[in-house]
Amino acid sequence: MCVLPTCTEEVGTFAECRDEPETCFVKAVSAAAEVCKIDMERNLLKALDLYLQELDPNSCLMDAGMLKELKIGTSGKFGGVGMVVTPKGGDYVVISPFEGSPAHKAGIKAGDIILEIDGG
Question: Which Gene3D superfamilies match (predicted)?
């Protein structure tokens, strides 16, 4: 359990918190993170990722390492139909077709559900 700071020297007096709530909130969160050993950057990235998924369930926030891996995995020449697919609720959902790929030329779009392959 972590006890969050209230109106103190670290955060500000009651009057300061009343007059400048945003400043006091930032100070309180920073003080709580320090006291409770919270990784603020990691938690901020998680919060941003959740917010982004609310806007578009097929999106995610990528850090530099994830972006590098994506670029490596999608660069160069490769075979296949040219799309990213993910399992979701028992279905396979298209995340995105690659520009100019057979999937893109066939009109497959993000959000499409794969029902069958070659009639199988």
Answer: 2.30.42.10, 3.30.750.44
